[in-house]
Sequence to fold (290 residues):
Amino acid sequence: MLTDYHLHLRPDDVDASAAEHFTSANAERYRAAASERGIAELGASEHVYRFVQALDVWRHPFWERYAHDDLDDYCRFVREETDLRLGIEADFVPGAEDRLANVLEARDFDYVVGSVHFLREGAVDMDDYSVWSSGRSAEEIWRRYFETVGESARSGLFDILAHPDLVKYWGPHPPNGRPLPSGDLRRYYELAIDGIAESGIAVEVSTAGLRKRAGEIYPAPAFLEMCLEAGAPVALSSDAHRPQDVGADYEQALELLERLGVGELSVFDRRTRRLKPIGALAGSPGGEPQ
Ligand SMILES: [Zn+2]
Ligand SMILES: [Zn+2]
Fold:
């Protein structure tokens, strides 16, 4: 069995409307792409900040620009007009845990993908509001990023820890042009591990990093190894924003998981997790779709 739970039904453009993309025909395109690759477990996880209810949690100017749609309409659409699992990608906003819990608990999600895109006001993976232009050193940004990832896990708000080392998004040349931390990066990963271990959160292996300047799977193998040693289960996703990226580069993700001895993936139903044996990709040696 294979999963792709971190899926967006539209690109990140502000004018990619719900009316145009939250349709059964569009969901069907994702399902068809998944079936072709032998991926049976599929779910939608739209960004929480695209819904007006997110403004009860945080009023960052970026969120105010994007919060157009109604969250309950989205939930109804996924449940009633698609055969996808109902998920959401929610940002961790320190200090707003109770407000986010209210938004999440009022809906019957199958799972919540928890992300750290912002360190306070600054984004790690966007040109706008960039944390990289804050004058902080790369070391400080990396330290704060992994501390926040640990806090996000410990908050208990999330089932899946998204793109766990997103801070490497820009690859070797982040926008402020300062050198990245070098050497053994486990000194940073270490800052997130206690929170991950204590929470029991599933750690996402995401092929999205391969499509960004990072050019690597999230998380780095050494970080994933530490998560596994801490007992974390794995969730596998592509973070696709269009049907043709569903299951993108899963060959590489499956190779990594096999190398590290991971034999099971997390599946979710109404926020209950089970582990299922990893299946083969369609068309790969020894593999029929499962
Ligand atoms: Zn994300
Ligand atoms: Zn995403």
